[in-house]
Amino acid sequence: MSTPPPHADTSELAGELRVALAALVRRLREQAGGMDLTRSQSSVLLRLEREGPATATALARAEGMRPQSMAKIVQALEAAGLVGGAPDPKDGRKTLLSITEAAREEYRTGRLAKQDWLARALDTTLTAEEIDRLASVTDLLRRLAQFP
Question: What is the value of pTM for the model shown?
């Protein structure tokens, strides 16, 4: 009767995975070029892109920051032409913020640049068998990313 192989030390694996993924994320960020934004500004733009228009108050709440801090972020994004505001149809006293077409184009070209770089890296660095192995873990990585 054979015994099953021992599980990997999850703490050690977590450390190695964190380092490897952080390095990959840094390389992907290098590929995008374009917008030179702070993390907070990028986070707000991404939220507006994914969730649609929102008030500055709602964005501040969602990002876990003070409304005054969000106001500075929104001002910088508006000055860069990446965010625009329009009166809220439900309450004209409020302004709904949304990303501009310029921001959408920056995201589109940045994502394409990242994807092109990653595809070239996969094709030139890994064997076909390694690419298949990597493809088999993408669902696992997605599940990990959803853990609270």
Answer: 0.67
